[in-house]
Specification:
3-stranded antiparallel β-sheet, flat
């Protein structure tokens, strides 16, 4: 009868260790920017309309470059470092 062999757990190399939360948080803006650029490229490649905010105004941009003002938008809020917000 064959015996089951136990294999040792895999060790991750120092290059593959999970990143800490702080390191991951620092990567968010860059990753978001990359995702936004990629989404915009895909939309343009498919000749879809896109929306963007220009000087506090939401603008619809058609594939041929025509811009249509949709509405005014309020500016974003500034958040102080260390601010704690509780969600309900």
């Amino acid at each position: 009868m064959p015996t089951k062999s136990k294999t040792a757990p895999r060790r991750t190399s120092s290059l593959r260790r999970p990143a800490t939360a702080a390191v991951m948080e620092k990567q968010i803006p860059g990753r978001a920017r990359t995702a936004l650029v990629a989404a915009a490229r895909r939309a343009k490649a498919k000749r879809l309309n896109t929306m963007e905010v220009v000087n506090g105004t939401l603008v619809l941009v058609s594939p041929d470059g025509e811009r249509t003002v949709v509405k005014s938008v309020e500016p974003g809020i500034t958040v102080k470092i260390g601010l704690k917000i509780s969600l309900r």
